[in-house]
């Protein structure tokens, strides 16, 4: 379907009365808040189960009201503003981080775009609104949220929050590039940036089957985008105490925590919309039940898919250790971005060949041959480059220059750079050798003349 037809299909949006728009907006807000409250308890329960612990079990039945109790506790705690902070920016930063997290849900379809459900006698779509460039709107509001984190770290007037804010900024920029390339593959296949049209194009086959590499890329980038483990470097306690929100307390700290979990729900909803068929029922159910995609049932399938992706977030946090920051940036710039660009070129080539009515076997032959040629060329280049580079380094740098490295030159220990070698650590004396030195007995090879040491007794006799 062409983009022009997709634009015509958006005519059903914008015709609802004002009170119905308010009802839909309140529903979207309530959906995010309830999902966040449930996700926090669910995360603590699942991680406790993985680690053979009990988890929350006091507040409410099965501890289900633990999130509500934590929220009340945070609101009642003392609100402290540090003396050196820029007060206006310090107060505004949590708001800037939280509000964009709620905005992306406005264009997510919970059901079919037609007038499928009745709310107080009015037939309406199960979506607040839609745009011809809805996915660009989601990318835009997701990018605004980073300003809240950076401003929080800068306005605190402290070193560690500033480092946490800078880490988060670098991380989100790195992973948003690969995320945008993964989105572009979906745009090429669907022919639209409208979320409702993208779901409509997955009627026969979900894009997780057609674009598996794009799905994997987006799954990795959405974990990095939300600063979740194992990519939670902006909040790594061992390095930065607490990250960009170290100097925050009470409701301001709660807003940062709320923004993180709302972003988790939002990226899960986007992944469901782009790759998992959106509100459509899974394959076994949709085949033998015609009414599975009508009425209020699509809302159930959408919520189940979102919860499964949230469980994936929790599973990663309870399974994988935190990566180093250099590994994080290397994965973003040297792996995800090149892979996403190459995959985007392959998808564009396949779509162009399909538009020219080439068969599947011809497309597979052309694509496979091109990939093999590229792999062979890259193998040859790497092989000759490694041989030449190693010889040049050996010829240019003597061994004593490569070994000349003082890890304490700057006043604190630093790891060696590639090509540098740490000098050997001197051997620690054994207890027997230390006793001989104290008692004036024969010393080892380094503490006296070759004939032995008589410094103890002769000095005292003299």
From TrEMBL:
Residues 413-425 have a biased composition (Pro residues). Its EC number is 7.1.1.-. Pfam families: NADHdh. It comes from the Bacteria. It is a multi-pass membrane protein. GO terms for molecular function: NADH dehydrogenase (quinone) (non-electrogenic) activity. Residues 389-462 are annotated as: Disordered. NDH-1 shuttles electrons from NADH, via FMN and iron-sulfur (Fe-S) centers, to quinones in the respiratory chain. The immediate electron acceptor for the enzyme in this species is believed to be ubiquinone. Couples the redox reaction to proton translocation (for every two electrons transferred, four hydrogen ions are translocated across the cytoplasmic membrane), and thus conserves the redox energy in a proton gradient. This subunit may bind ubiquinone. This is NADH-quinone oxidoreductase subunit H. The lineage of its organism: Bacteria, Bacillati, Actinomycetota, Actinomycetes, Kitasatosporales. The gene is nuoH.
